[in-house]
Design brief:
Length: 179
């Protein structure tokens, strides 16, 4: 069982106005990692999510427990664990098939930009490409499938808090959420 919601305060709430309030968890509280913390590469390790990884399995392999899965989601700004987390290969194929009548149809056209950074940071970095009209000289088509695959590739590159920082992070989260 996850300990994530145990950090949140409880409150009495009378949902049906019957005069019998129930003790509920205040899930409306929100905490996010500070931008300065997220950009500090000293406290993070880069991790490439592989097919079949879940937040729980990455937590277990990194921290020795599944209980810190939520820290992985939080520091990577993942609000929906099912669609912000990279899909398994099988789920990806089903997703693309369901979303597009023709996954191989053209999604958009692009070319290498003529100014600014023109080299990417690896095969999954497409920042050196820009969308253009199909009539643009040098324009290359990108299929629906390739477009969705690129989104998944970007989701696969996540940050993990180094093990030495996890307890401080949890303590700070607990303090902030109880405010």
């Amino acid at each position: 069982m996850s300990i994530y919601f145990t950090y949140f305060p409880k409150l009495l709430y009378d949902i049906d106005k019957s005069g019998n309030p129930k003790l509920i968890t205040d899930i409306i509280r929100r905490v996010k990692a500070r931008d300065g913390v997220k950009s500090n590469s000293f406290i993070f390790d880069k991790y490439d999510v592989v097919n079949g990884d879940t937040p729980e399995s990455v937590s277990y392999n990194t921290y020795g427990t599944t209980e810190y899965y939520w820290t992985i989601l939080l520091v990577n700004d993942m609000k929906d664990r099912y669609y912000d987390w990279p899909l398994s290969d099988q789920a990806f194929e089903a997703y693309v098939k369901d979303k597009y009548a023709n996954p191989n149809a053209i999604h958009h056209y692009e070319k290498v930009q003529s100014s600014g950074p023109q080299t990417g940071n690896g095969p999954e970095d497409y920042t050196h490409l820009i969308e253009v009209n199909s009539t643009e000289v040098g324009a290359l088509s990108v299929s629906n499938y390739e477009y969705e695959r690129r989104i998944q590739d970007q989701k696969r590159q996540i940050n993990l808090l180094k093990e030495g920082y996890i307890s401080n992070f949890v303590t700070e989260f607990q303090r902030l959420v109880r405010r």
